[in-house]
Amino acid sequence: MSPKRTVATWTMAVLTAATLASCADSERNDDNGGGGGDDGTFVFGAAGAPEMFDPFYATDGETFRVTRQMFEGLVGIKPGTAEVVPELATEWTPNDDGTEWTFKLRDDVTFHDGEPFNAEAVCYNFERMFDQNEAGQTAGEYWGYVMGAFSNDAANSLYQGCEATGDYEAKISISGPTSGFPTMLSLEALSMQSPKALEEGDANGIAAEGEGFSFPDYANNPVGTGPFTFGEYDEANGEISLERNDDYWGEKAKSSEIVFRVIPDESTRRQELEAGSINGYDLPNPVDWAGLEDDGNSVEVRDPFNILYLGLNPEANPQLKDLKVRQALYHALNREQLVQTQLPEGAAVATQFMPDTVSGYNTNLQPYSYDPDEAKKLLAEAGAEGMTLNFAYPTEVSRPYMPDPEKIYEALRTDLEAVGIKVNVKTASWNGGYLDNVTAGKYDAYILGWTGDYDSPFNFIGTFFGNLKENDFGTEVMPWGKQLADDLKTADAIVDDAERGAAFEKINQQIMEEYLPGLPISHSPPALVVGPGVEGVIPSPLTAEEFDTVSVGGE
Amino acid sequence: MIRFVVRRLLQMLLVVLVLSMLVFAWLRSLPGGPVSAMLGERQTPERRAALEAALGLDQPLPVQYGKFLQRAVQGDFGVSTKVLPGEDALDIFLQRLPATIELSFLAMVLAVALGIPLGYFAARRRGSPADAGAVIFSLVGVAVPVFFTAFLLKYFFAVEWNLLPVSGRQSTGMDATRVTGMFVLDGILTREWDASWDALKHLILPALALSTIPFAVIFRITRASVLDVLDEDYVRTAEAKGLTAKVIRGRHVLRNAMLPVVTTIGLQVGGLLSGAVLTETVFSYRGVGEALATAFREKDYPVLQVLIMAAAAIYVLVNLMVDIAYAIIDPRIRTR
Amino acid sequence: MSDPTTDRHDDQHESSSQTPRRTTYGGLRKQRIDDLATAGTVDDQPGVSLIRSAWQRLRRNPIFLIGLAITVAFVVLAVIAPWIAPWDVTARPLLDKVRPQSNPVPGPEAGHLLGGDDRGRDLFSRLIVGSRQTLIVGVFATLFGLIGGVTLGTLAGAVGGWVDSLVMRIVDVMLSLPSLLLAFTIASLARNPSQWTVVVAIAIIQVPIFARLLRGSMLAQRSSDHVLAARSLGVRPRAIVFRHMLPNAMGPVIVQATLSLAVAIIEAAALSFLGLGNPDQRQPEWGQMLGLAQPYITEAPHLAFYPAGCIIVVALGFTLMGESLREALDPKTRR
Lengths: 555, 336, 335
Prior knowledge:
The structure holds 3 protein chains of 3 kinds. Chain A is of the alpha+beta class. Chain A is about 30% helix and about 20% strand. In chain A, the strands form 6 sheets. A 7-stranded mixed beta sheet of chain A has the order 10-11-12-1-13-21-14. Helices cover about 80% and strands about 0% of the residues of chain B. Chain B is built from 14 helices and no strands.
């Protein structure tokens, strides 16, 4: 390169840089944060980025954690419990057959954009959720899950209509009574959003584009009634900030700002907490609990609201049709040892397919004993000594009920092999076929679990066995499969709470003693950790913490 | 020259097209998929089918690919399903690219600044213990898995000694203005010096981890090519003529030895992405590599397609640029 | 079959070391491969034979000797591991001491030199036995890669023409992808992942390297005197390929294989780190032990440090040996 050209190149480079610099002015706000006084920022380390900010289309916990701070539902959950309490509705009463519910609403609530919250807004929200295009029907997964159908298939929908019977009184009709209503209205996905903002942001304008959904403007400009308002999403740095809502109808939030910082790696979250750059994160590794506490952090252990089970599929392995074989497998498992050595403190051996916080839990049931001899005897009686079991576990996943699937699997597998069962190790990654194979009945046995959405027995055992044709336990081929599914539906439709509870208790007993479609293993408490100086975190069994009560060290 | 460039560009286009086809078929043959990632425990065959139908995943592969090509020609590579749902996949790549450029640039600067001098001195003292030590040191760099280097750096410098930030690209609450997406540069352009300094501190550890392999390669090539040149007749002649060591070094040895080194540097840039996947994952650094790892875990097909194709295209482009540069510098190649 | 000895390729490789480094057409990775291809094949020099002269240099090379010592120690350990390990690697003698919070990883005690792992198994035994699996992964990944690469390379180098073009374009596409990414994708393709998934994934990323190497080597052979002589004597093309060209072209391939062993072991560790290793962790393997140690990185970092240390030392051993072999066979350094 000749000297002349070099000079020219450099001149160009300098000129370009100068031009760039001249048009790049600092856009910093001197005022740090939008809302009033500065009471500190609560920085939370999130494991993943939120999908978007319209809870209706959201499906994962990371998204709900963010939207939960901005939105409220008609009914809420009492902090620290799974109990349903009034939130935007002050009270609700059903008619006699439990198909029409009248909600009395708060009259002092406005949305973040100044729109009033009233019965019209409630009905607008329900109609908006009900009336989805094809893409919206699949993306609005929670509605589909609890309501069954959308407006195009109105006959099969639980939701039948909403009527504003007064300024602050709304009547919601449903197709029949269920234990899930109105508890399901506490679901984050069914939160109340500003009708004006929904309209202006074309909230229902979701479309399938290629393999994904493209979301309308609204999904990035959410407007709710909650204690925090949406700030901004700095995608380049992976940070979402929420500002305190100074016009909140209830007690104002203690922190003036919450920042969610995306840190996908577990051990990095811990290191960031130790370095003081975040104030807390979810699901610390049980191994770290003691160390975290020693360093002055507080580990908040939630009550378990989940179940880990060993699923069995008699369709895949006909030997499992024999109750004796299933009981033998259960007796072979040393669950006490598993819980003590592999699960976090506070974990418990399960006696049935739901935790004791759920109504309909049967307190009389005792855990199956660890008895390898009995197991061998039962296997011999069933003529299934040395049977082969295709037993699977998922990789690349950590769930509240199974922090480390592989370790749990290893313990279970060792126990099964000890009674002479030949275990074929099967595995796939969680997103890479494991769930597909489970639902398609490709495994004889597998580990899986469930975290409750809300306090309803049907949300647990109804999900597992209520759908006869499509369930992971292959109950269709069992003589009692249909009976169980029918019993569940009947019990779920009982209006009276006490009566319904008794019915579910009976079903739980039948499941464990007569059917044993799968083997409930344990309940594990998920934890949450916050750094020194953070106060007011109320751990929620539903892992649905609201951060408005959280304050950060004296600032 | 122009014919050569055009031919190479056409070749590149072909490579990317073939790749897009392979990647497309490949991804869709993987078990599971975005639908599993979206549904989780709630998955039933029924819901799965509905979601697949809505997303067009139930159609035959050639049909899917045809639609993909049709949209791709218009610059639409689909929207992300999980990395940043609803966002255009190409936008995600473009948004993550500055982060990775920034990181790779610093890593290359470190590798060059260490590799060339060390390689030169090792060659000058060939066979000495210092040479052997330097060679072994460079080989250790290759033998340590990149993610482990990254982990060690993080563990000691960030956690134990608290000298540098643990992860991410910039501290919370910096409220920096974004211009190019390269945070250090942005801070300089907008004269937000603290933001720039903060971003630089976040860069140091990942860049060090990422530079180990390019360093080792640059070191070895420098050493080898300096050795070659030292053996050449003209250097011997120069020595015989009694030219000072300084003149020989400057005018003959370094200059002639640099050609292969320049090539190496160019090519290492193309190969940085492999290391970036691991390094960015360890440091939760939001660059292309981290997006790739996340996209893979969550089976975000559109993002994966764009990222893999872009990686290949960049690799081929860098190759091409190196060849062109080389052809300009060394006329002997042009004639072939 | 076209005549193997006809040079019709515009990017024909000169076997002479005097030509300037070839750079058009692809990258340094390719160039390094090609350099090596021509290295071991210049065997028609007068005087000491290639192997003997190489050995004479290697014998005095401390780098080579260190590498050789590590490698030999590793292989011996891998072979005798099951007999010297104090505990059965699947037994869980320390399980009752494991408590997820208070004592996640049992420390050293009598009979357990390094303590246990998170499931109460003896860590020391697992490290020792881990050498065997690690060796198996490395050797088989390299072997399969070698077989695949040699087949493709022979095909390309011997047949030439459009077959050559086709094979080399495929190889170029494979080389144009980041290798780890390729392995990553292949490993996640498996429906029933196992140790062999890792082996196959790593083998596949080695294939293009070996293929290119062998083809280069064969091209260099094509114009060598003894092949020309054989040709002029009327030896059949097939016989030329298999009796004369292939055996002589194998030298560089073997050097590359040594280096590939190190790469295979490191890449296996990376795959395990990304969660794509062997899901059945009863039989220990270092990369997998390192991957599984991740959750304990703060509380019990030694779980990660021991296997990582082993991997580094062994990878270094193979690399030192391979690099000095390469240098010894390189005609440029033989003056």
